[in-house]
């Protein structure tokens, strides 16, 4: 009795010493701190990424570049990921993951500041206009300058005179800074997702891992809400605010030449990203691996038993004693093993194709709203942030919650993700029916006789009513005539006089506006929104519904990626998945989507130093067919590939079930043999005068 009491006392002291050696912060608290820090990092990177997409049209106009070049800039973020993601995912899983994430956040912040740098280097923004701000004057020079046709070139344009400062401006394109900054952002973002998700999955209990990942993914979708709202706010502010007098600006935010304060949002996003790096410096490298039930006081034997629990088959902790050379030698064989997994390969192909569709759609959706429904950039970004993105966040969180409530296995998660994607695809077909007519622009979308003709030819701009004026067909300075038709410039409208200044300028005696020649025109496009105003609310409602349904399958689909592979391959699988999707979806999708959208342009702007600039007006019908058709075609291909994926996944699950049964039978047979041997030894050593006691003891042991 004394020995037992002493032994119990020793175990109690050992348990108290084990508890005393634990850090002040419990593993549960540390995991929650990491979850909060990772959520904030996801928020910061999502905010800056969505703000980049909200400034696409601003960057196009500011640097006078077409959509495909904007696609190159947008894809440069993925190029940064491509450079380092495979090595960060593989080696980072074996090193101090929180500190590597902190370094990445700092690099993201520096890259964001570099993107804003061109604004402080280049001069003030100058746009094409015939309207001048004249102080103390109510009469401006005539837009229509009578002259002989001999001054025109063969294509009907005025001779181009290079503007001052063109030589120095052509030596270096300022958009290169935006591209390089975005590459650095991509490098910094690399460790956040694979290392952060694998850290949570390693040290969280299995039933909570899906919920935690769902929370982080939800925060990553909340970030774009603020990113697009920030884009909406900055798009209302003129690009050179504080450096020019706003009363001298003759255009409004709804004008296709307007450029907002795009640089301001990047400065704000850079500061937020820098702050997100701070918590990771104070988090531990690893946490105790959770078991089925972890007691507060633990002996070494209990700890060993918990770590060996079969419930931890998805947990994989980093080996702190593995050398760098050993890790490098294992990299290629490990990667070969990963790529030989058929289910993983099919999953990779499906997600690459679907992300091509998703990235292309999201990148140019604000622009689609601007051009197709004739909304301002500020309003398009506001609607994306307030209406569309919250539906995605709610869908991703609900998907994680449903997966936990329904206790979906791998096959259940795959079917759930496929079903939600298919329903969203069917609903997306109705977008084709939601169309708006092209804007009525004389000489571009219709002739001067109001005959509807959706085509563009430079010679169509010149007709009898403006033949006496020497006009340039490359200028874009739209005016709205009293007849409800927009004209490319006051000169092409045949206006001979103008009064007022700035936004209040009124052009009169416009020969192309009316037959009598005494009709007037005002600055800007004509507000032709009757059909679009009726259709736009339906477009927004359907967009919210489809976004919610499709995003429901986001978290189950992501957990399918984690669970369909071996635990020791998990971090590399996540990293290689991110590498492949960024390389084959993130980089090319914005480029070829932008190139196809460029083919629907009806009127290109002119650079100050010559050459084609940004598009001023699109063929909305062709834009809609190209944009929606390409998006849904890619998703159709992904559904076809899903069919062999389900077959392979079913086979894998059956093989795992068979191997588990065989393993259980082998283990059970081994235990039975041990018990029989033990019974034989006991029976040989039994005393003959205690037969009943020995029989009872054998039955108890069996």
TrEMBL record:
Which chemical reaction does it catalyze? L-thyroxine(out) = L-thyroxine(in); 3,3',5'-triiodo-L-thyronine(out) = 3,3',5'-triiodo-L-thyronine(in); L-thyroxine sulfate(out) = L-thyroxine sulfate(in)
- Annotated Basic and acidic residues bias: 1-10, 687-702
Ranges for the region named Disordered are: 1-23, 683-702
> Pfam families this protein is in?
Kazal_2, OATP
Keywords assigned: Cell membrane, Disulfide bond, Glycoprotein, Ion transport, Lipid transport, Membrane, Transmembrane, Transmembrane helix, Transport
Any Gene Ontology CC annotation: basolateral plasma membrane
- Is-annotated flag, keyword Ribosomal protein? no
Question: Where is the Major facilitator superfamily (MFS) profile domain positioned along the sequence?
Answer: 34-654
Name the family: Belongs to the organo anion transporter (TC 2.A.60) family.
Q: What name appears for this protein in its UniProt entry?
A: Solute carrier organic anion transporter family member
**Gene encoding it?**
SLCO1C1
């Amino acid at each position: 009795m004394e020995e037992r009491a002493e032994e119990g006392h020793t175990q109690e002291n050992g348990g108290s010493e084990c508890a005393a050696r634990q850090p002040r912060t419990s593993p549960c608290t540390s995991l929650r701190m990491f979850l909060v820090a990772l959520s904030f990092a996801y928020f910061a990177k999502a905010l800056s990424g969505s703000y980049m997409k909200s400034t696409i049209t601003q960057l196009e106009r500011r640097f006078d570049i077409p959509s495909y070049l904007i696609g190159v800039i947008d894809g440069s973020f993925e190029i940064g990921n491509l450079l380092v993601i495979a090595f960060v995912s593989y080696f980072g899983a074996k090193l101090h993951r929180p500190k590597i994430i902190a370094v990445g956040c700092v690099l993201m912040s520096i890259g964001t500041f570099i993107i804003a740098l061109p604004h402080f280097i280049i001069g003030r923004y100058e746009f094409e206009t015939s309207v001048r701000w004249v102080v103390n004057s109510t009469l401006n020079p005539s837009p229509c300058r009578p002259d002989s046709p001999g001054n025109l070139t063969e294509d009907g344009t005025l001779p181009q005179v290079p503007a001052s400062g063109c030589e120095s401006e052509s030596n270096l394109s300022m958009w290169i800074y935006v591209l390089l900054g975005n590459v650095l952002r991509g490098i910094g973002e690399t460790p956040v997702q694979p290392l952060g998700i694998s850290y949570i999955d390693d040290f969280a209990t299995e039933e909570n891992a899906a919920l935690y990942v769902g929370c982080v993914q939800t925060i990553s979708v909340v970030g774009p809400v603020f990113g697009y709202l920030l884009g909406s706010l900055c798009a209302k502010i003129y690009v050179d605010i504080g450096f020019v007098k706003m009363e001298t600006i003759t255009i409004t935010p709804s004008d296709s030449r307007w450029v907002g304060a795009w640089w301001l949002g990047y400065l704000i996003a850079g500061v937020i990203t820098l702050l997100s790096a701070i918590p990771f410096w104070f988090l531990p490298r690893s946490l105790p691996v959770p078991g089925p039930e972890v007691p507060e006081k633990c002996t070494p034997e209990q700890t060993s038993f918990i770590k060996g629990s079969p419930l931890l088959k998805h947990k994989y902790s980093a080996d702190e004693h593995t050398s760098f050379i050993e890790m490098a030698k294992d990299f290629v064989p490990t990667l070969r093993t990963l790529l030989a997994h058929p289910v993983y390969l099919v999953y990779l192909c499906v997600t690459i194709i679907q992300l091509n569709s998703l990235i292309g759609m999201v990148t140019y959706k604000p622009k689609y709203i601007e051009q197709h429904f004739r909304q301002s950039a500020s309003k398009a970004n506001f609607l994306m942030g307030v209406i569309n993105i919250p539906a995605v966040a709610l869908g991703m969180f609900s998907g994680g919650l449903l997966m936990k409530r329904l206790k979906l296995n791998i096959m259940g998660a795959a079917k759930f993700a496929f079903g939600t994607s298919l329903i969203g695809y069917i609903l997306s077909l109705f977008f084709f029916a939601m169309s708006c007519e092209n804007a009525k622009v004389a000489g571009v979308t219709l002739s001067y006789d109001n005959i509807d003709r959706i085509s563009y030819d430079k010679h169509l701009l010149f007709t009898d009513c403006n033949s006496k004026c020497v006009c340039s067909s490359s200028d874009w300075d739209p005016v709205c005539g009293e007849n409800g038709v927009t004209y490319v410039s006051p000169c092409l409208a045949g206006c001979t006089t103008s009064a007022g200044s700035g936004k209040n300028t009124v052009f009169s005696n416009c020969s192309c506006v009316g037959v009598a020649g005494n009709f007037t025109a005002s600055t800007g496009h004509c507000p032709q929104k009757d059909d679009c105003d009726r259709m736009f609310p339906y477009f927004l409602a359907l967009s919210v519904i489809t976004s919610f349904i499709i995003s429901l399958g986001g978290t189950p689909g992501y957990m399918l990626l984690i669970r369909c592979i071996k635990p020791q391959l998990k971090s590399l699988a996540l990293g290689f998945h991110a590498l492949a999707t960024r390389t084959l979806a993130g980089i090319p999708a914005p480029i070829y989507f932008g190139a196809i959208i460029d083919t629907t342009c009806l009127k290109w702007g002119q650079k100050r130093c010559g050459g084609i600039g940004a598009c001023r007006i699109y063929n909305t019908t062709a834009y809609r067919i190209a944009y929606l058709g390409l998006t849904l075609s890619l998703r159709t291909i992904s559904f076809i590939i899903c069919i062999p994926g389900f077959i392979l996944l079913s086979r894998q699950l059956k093989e795992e079930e068979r191997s588990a049964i065989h393993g259980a039978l082998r283990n059970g047979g081994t235990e039975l043999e041990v018990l029989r041997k033990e019974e034989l030894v006991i029976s040989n050593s039994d005393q003959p005068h205690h037969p009943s006691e020995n029989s009872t003891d054998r039955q108890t042991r069996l």
